[in-house]
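4.2 Preliminary Data

To establish feasibility before requesting continued support, the project team ran the inverse folding procedure on a target of 196 residues. The structure was first converted into the token representation described in Section 3, and no sequence information of any kind was made available to the design step. The complete token record follows.
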């Protein structure tokens, strides 16, 4: 027995968990889900709509990428992906908690080509850029869960949707620095394979 990840290569929420598992060197099996033809057993395992990712460990099931990643952080504390200081940990959690309003909602509006979405997205990217101008990583001094929680969408914006991030210098520097990590490089390859 061990960990199984119900996964989809193009899903950025799954990418959050793939990156954490890779950062921590945790071995796991993958069950790839066809998002266009979601199996009924997945809906049973993660009602009501069978979303991915779902992590299974010895028969126990856990959905929700942010919750899975926090679980993995506690279960496999080395290397740590949260800072030691409680206040800094809270800041990371707040940033992850606000993902939808900061980046997720404008990203999906932009993908749907909704009116005004480009400006909305630029606002979110500007907020992320400002944070990265003040600290090397979204998690603070070191790479961690806040970085993991935002990276998949930024990799897809750039790699799949052809959006230039050059106007955001701190964000661009951060992307380059994150790309040096094998866990992130693997995700960049996954995104490239989706684009091919
Ligand atoms: N809040 C969930 C969102 C997961 C999610 O929306 N996954 C997408 C694939 S990227 C999905 O399975 N969507 C189901 C649907 O669209 O019906 C998480 O963080 O894990």
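Position-by-position output of the design step:
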């Amino acid at each position: 027995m061990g960990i199984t990840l119900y996964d989809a290569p193009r899903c950025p929420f799954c990418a959050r968990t793939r990156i954490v598992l890779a950062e921590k060197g945790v071995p796991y099996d993958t069950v790839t889900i066809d998002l266009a033809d979601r199996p009924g057993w997945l809906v049973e395992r993660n009602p009501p709509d069978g979303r991915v990712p779902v992590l299974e460990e010895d028969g126990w099931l856990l959905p929700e990428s942010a919750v899975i990643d926090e679980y993995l952080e506690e279960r496999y504390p080395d290397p740590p992906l949260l800072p030691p200081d409680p206040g800094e940990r809270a800041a990371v959690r707040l940033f992850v908690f606000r993902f939808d309003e900061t980046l997720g909602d404008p990203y999906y509006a932009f993908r749907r080509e909704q009116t005004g979405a480009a400006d909305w997205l630029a606002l979110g990217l500007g907020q992320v850029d400002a944070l990265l101008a003040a600290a090397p990583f979204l998690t603070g001094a070191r790479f961690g869960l806040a970085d993991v929680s935002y990276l998949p969408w930024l990799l897809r914006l750039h790699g799949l949707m052809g959006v230039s991030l050059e106007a955001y210098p701190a964000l661009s520097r951060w992307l380059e620095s994150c790309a040096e990590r094998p866990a992130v490089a693997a995700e960049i390859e996954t995104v490239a394979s989706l684009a091919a």
